[in-house]
Request: fold
Amino acid sequence: MKYKIYQVFYEKNQEKYLNEEFVPFDNTLNSRPDLMEYHLFKVGYKRALSEKLSHWGFFSWKWQRKTKVKPNQFIEFIENNPDQDVYLINWCPYIESWNFNIWTHAELYHPGIVSIVDQYLKKMNYISLNDSVLNMFMSPNYSCLSSYFIGSAKFWAEYLQFLNKFKNTIDTDNELKSLVYTKVNYNEQTNYSFFPFIVERLFSTFLVLNKRKYKILNYPSDFSIYKKYIGENYKELEKSFKIKLNMIEKENKDLYFNEWKKQLIKIKSSMPIIPIPDLD
Reply:
């Protein structure tokens, strides 16, 4: 297994935050900053293939700040579990504790994003015409934000094909194109469209749609490291997270789903929770 974890920086002053265990990836000359990770993935894919890697991923310079996990811990996790198709780390597992999936979370912070994604997924027959991505059960094991994952060459080829289909479809569908490229506010900036926020969440969606095809391993979440940021409430969030993990098996899903909804009431938080759908 020959792998590399590239650590991406977008400005020269970000180099000082890079971790020596990762491989620096200079993205300062990015010709399509509006496409964010999508453009990076395509450029990085060619580089990884030229280096004959079996696995690779692209982590941002904010790795330490976001994950609270040391690079060698994640590297040890990979090397102790060789030959998986996908290794991921969910840097904010508490979000999974109180959201049915990453799209319920997305709708709270990027209103309107779900109707756009629904329109695309229905057009491509990924979901039925009377369904919504809000109803897609997403195990915490498949949830990942900020592109903190590495994948095999086979996975990357198929995942990029999935993303390319999305990009090509919206660019040739005038209605979808106008919706996806609508400018949105993000951290008080208005130079972003819905595009990067959709792509960020298409990773987990792709895993759900292909969960029987790949061997997927999620770095174990340690909720105690979030005590400093969310207080003693982390214990209730951790319970909620573990209940969601038990919802993977169909025969247990209804039982744990009801238990999970009851657990949400115990979470003391100002965090908004989108209405929970009913299970099929």
Notes: The first strand starts at residue 3 and ends at 9. The chain has a mean pLDDT of 90. The chain has one domain: 3-266. The CA atoms of residues 2 and 54 lie 5 Å apart.
